[in-house]
Amino acid sequence: MGSKDIFDDEDIKRIQSEYDSLISNLLRCNNPGDRELIEKAFRIANEAHWNMRRKSGEPYIIHPICVARIVNQEIGLGAKSIATALLHDVVEDTGYSLDDIEKEFGPKIASLIDGLTKISGTYNKGSSSSMQAENFRRMLLTISDDLRVILIKIADRLHNMRTLDSMPENKKMKVAGETIFLYAPLANRIGLYAIKSELEDLSFKYRQPVIYEEILSKLKHGEKKYYSLINKFSLPIINKLKEAGLVFDISGRPKSIFSIWKKMQAKNVPFEEVYDVLAVRIVFEPVPGIPEKTTCWNIYSIITDSYLPKPDRLRDWISRPKPNGYEALHLTVMGPDGHWVEVQIRSRRMDEIAERGYAAHYKYKGDNTPETELDKWIKQIRMMLENPLEDPIEFLDEFKMNLFSSEIMVFTPKGALVSLPKGASALDFAYEIHTEIGNKAIGAKINYKLNPISAILMSGDQVEIITSDIAKPEKEWLSFVRTAKAKEAIKNSLKTESTDRIQKGMEMLEAKLAELGVSPNTEILKKIMLSYDVLNKDELYSGIELGTVNLDNLKKIIRKSPSKNVIKYWELKLLGSRKEKKDEEEEKEGKTDPSSPFLLRENVENAEQSYEIARCCNPIPGDEVLGYRSPEGSIIIHKPKCPVAIRIMSNEGNRIIAVRWAIHKLVSFLARISMTGVDRIGMVNDITNIISAELKVNMTNINISVREGIFEGTIDLYVHHTQDLNNLILKISNVRGIDTIKRVEDFAEEV
After folding, report:
1. Domain that holds residue 438
2. Where among 300, 334, 364 does a domain terminate?
3. Are residues 206 and 248 in the same domain?
4. pLDDT digit string (tens) for 41-56?
5. Count of domains for the chain
6. Do residues 202 and 225 share a domain?
7. Which residues are catalytic?
8. Do residues 250 and 282 touch, judged by C-beta distance below 8 A?
9. pLDDT, tens digit (0-9, with 9 covering 90-100), for 439-478
């Protein structure tokens, strides 16, 4: 150990000074034993990290002390959280174990530290998992037990970002990327606005240092002007607020560098053209007997008496707080010398919640206080985490999508507000109300107008869900829901249905085999599976119940002598050949055997197919098709005569693969039919009755026009196979008045 690794007197004085700074300004630590707990945690952490240094060269223990200070003074947590912050790296970086911690401090602090401890050991780099995503996943899962883990982790990340300069460039980019991806949005959702803004700015500083320095330089250059404007703006307001008898603080500042940059990006303008760079905050003491909301609007009135407001920039988060509990009234007014100024109006309570989030929220929350938006959000997190996805990357994506996306507010028919992520559909709304309503949904009235359940909702919409007892979740639903609750409910329903289908299919096969006097042994099942091109017994049983596997020729299949190819196949199966293992590996990697056609299977259990249907020609099962393997690795299915396919064949012939359809009965494909005929009353009704009522086919678009007694039109609909479409065309051709009806072979789907 070199001399630089051994603490000298200066190091020891520095450690003591930092610790004294922590304990001399403790908040919420007035219970008996609080200071003793913190002192004990510091002593053990100091011993564990003795002679350890950070990359910056300072004693390592300085970092846990600073994290503890953030936890207490900037977030507002108490003694146990401070102790946990002091000890948070002990298990990971020293010889102490979780058992040691539990013996000294009890199970609660041990569990908090466990949530904070990074995962050690190796992982499979070839898998879709990553250590980074797995660490995030483990941390997020602790929310269901104790939200303090997240709060301490955010404090840890904040101090790391404040001291990031000593790290190498690649480490800076990694940490800064993680921060803007997860920690800043998470801090925002928990209500830590000040910390969120600092994390964003620090991340931006290291990710885009040139742009950061440019904006910082321009802010510094105009600093005197900005504060002069703020003072000039504030003076008449201060006088009027004093005349009204209000006790208040007023402060002003330029907005954060990251928020200015976002405005520049959103509006595609330079720094000089961002009009609302300045922000003024008014924090008032509540007036006894007068609601805080009333005082906020009184202050609003005082401000607008002096300055002209910008109507489209009024933000009322008092009547409806943000999901993270944030309450305030924001307005933008035209200030002196033609500068726009944003004004934030808050009570003292609102301000503390805005700055300290979760901890302050519960400081003001009584036992009888109604459930707040923050309570609902935490409940939503815990609901989502009850059945977490196994893949950490998929889990993280789902978490971000559902919990970090912008919110919309929609109304029930009775006027109750429902919060949903931006981009949510009417079906998301249905599941948010109740799982059974979602499962039975067939349509929605949005602002009294009938819409499909896939319709995207906007803030302020009033939504009424239309249900039917015969409706049930479809796989296609997974493609247009956004909330974790809706996806989980649909998947559970499909899984239950699949299990029932497999059981019924197995019983049907056993009954049929019993009629033939045959027992369902392994050899018989393998012969049947081979005949029907199915991968496993579950797919076979599902197919039987669905009707995709027809048992009418079962007798012939069983008694059929195995061909040489079949014998060879069983030899390979029994011997467990290397070729089979290779094929399995290739299948996992998404590769295809060029010597045999790629089978376009119907994926019964999952939302995604193993291929994509080209929207330029919209082939359906039964059509002659070819496959194109894109540079991204996906297989796109075209008709051979499609102009796009012809171009691909001439330019990228090496990417063309042979494909063939398996039997399809579940997944629907878009098709279009055209009709002409002599118009009469009730004709359209007769046509749609055949499609919807008789054949149970879903229509997506009807376009019919009549001129001088002759009608022509097109209908877009979803079918399983060309046989279904041909049957439909035959039925409609018998409708009185129909002259011609045919399939439109090539059409582009409108997107």
Report:
1. 405-477
2. 364
3. no
4. 999 999 999 989 888 8
5. 5
6. no
7. 92-93
8. yes
9. 999 999 998 888 889 899 988 889 999 998 888 888 788 8
